[in-house]
Amino acid sequence: MSSVDGFSIGGEVPVTGPPIPGLIGSGQAMEEVYSMTRRVARSSASVLLLGETGTGKELIAKAVHILSDRGSGPFIRVNCGALSENLLESELFGHVRGAFTGAVDNRTGRFEAAHTGTIFLDEINSTTPKLQVKLLRVLQEHEFERVGDTQTNSVDTRVIAASNCDLFDEVHAGRFREDLYYRLNVVPIIMPPLRQRREDIPELVAHFLNLYSKSNQRHVAYIQREAVESLQNYDWPGNVRELQNYVERAVVLAPGDELTADLLPEIVRKGQRRRIGRSTGADLTSLSADLIREGIESAGPDSDNLYAMVVSRVERELIAQVMLECDGVQVKAAARLGINRNTLHKKIRQYGLDE
Fold first, then answer.
1. FRET pair for 134, CA 20 to 30 Å: which of 6, 149, 164, 178?
2. Is 16 helix (H, G, I), strand (E, B) or coil?
3. Using an 8 Å Cβ cutoff, are 152 and 143 in contact?
4. CATH of 2-15+197-269, one of 3.30.70.100, 3.30.70.790, 3.40.50.12160, 1.10.8.60
């Protein structure tokens, strides 16, 4: 039996204990993250998690919460990039009856729900200037008002924020408040992309093989040497989340008990190094032509709604491509597309692109 970076090839997948419960990887890059996580967890300081999409920022946020004195309290996650400004404000701070159309009852916000615990604000970079003012007040004064209310509420909640872009650059570009940045950036933790921690890939694969073998009632307990090498040579633009998806797919498709290289996508086997969603103008033009042709063919010669069918196909693909390019941040995608964020949010739901 041989091994690649401690990963057994041709033998049972090893099950090893992570340095912090729920986190996988024992390389130098992650050891530094674990060390900082333990140190900051014992404090009450705000934490800012920085890193590309799919690097595991939410797992670190949960670890900070669990290891802190607030570990027995609630942990509340809010994806700031998934909601429009008005919906996000109501989600965070709650609202009173009659505050806006559809507000038929009083509602408790996420900050109140996280009282004595931790609130994790993911994609904080997508918040608007108006909302940033309210967030700054909560951080400074621990006070807020529900939407449509004049009564001030106090809250004891620790804030952990995350961004998939450099917030300092956002400050200089005028898209993020400098005072809020410094309030959040008390203790920054930078999550390394998977391409900078390739030594952790065997351990991650072992974890996902065990996980998805159980959930799919399979027994894929071995891995081919060529498969490990392919996984370690790929650049992983989608980071751990992309690796997780490919391992699940391999487990589902495996005819036996071994993960072989042919079960991996071609871009992984060939080691192609391209960013997801970074399509060129020529790529999109070619794609649009294909979609138009497919739309015409599928509509048939008797269709009387050809224009709407074809336009919706092209629009859906364009939005999907731009959302990938902007790492799912709706504010950026709307600006890139030149449309209102609320309009983009409606189209995302219309086309089933919520994920």
1. 164
2. coil
3. yes
4. 1.10.8.60
Enumerate the β-bridge partners of residue 120. Answer: 77, 160
Query: Which of 267, 198, 210 shows the shortest CA–CA distance to 239?
Result: 198
Tokens standing for 213?
Answer: 């073998």
Q: What is the CATH number of domain 28-190?
A: 3.40.50.300
Q: Annotate 224-266 with DSSP letters as a single string.
A: -HHHHHHHHHS--TTHHHHHHHHHHHHHHH-SSSEE-GGGS-H
Domain ranges in the chain are 2-15+197-269, 28-190, 281-350
Question: Residue 134: beta bridge partners?
Answer: none
Structure-block tokens of residue 126 = 């997508």
Alpha-carbon distances of 233 from 87, 197, 199, rounded to whole Å: 42, 11, 11
Q: What is the CA radius of gyration of the chain?
A: 23
DSSP strand pairing (7-9 vs 75-79): unpaired
Q: Which CATH code for domain 281-350?
A: 1.10.10.60
**DSSP H helix total and E strand total for the chain:** 15, 13
The model's pTM is 0.71
- The token duo for 215 is 């959930």
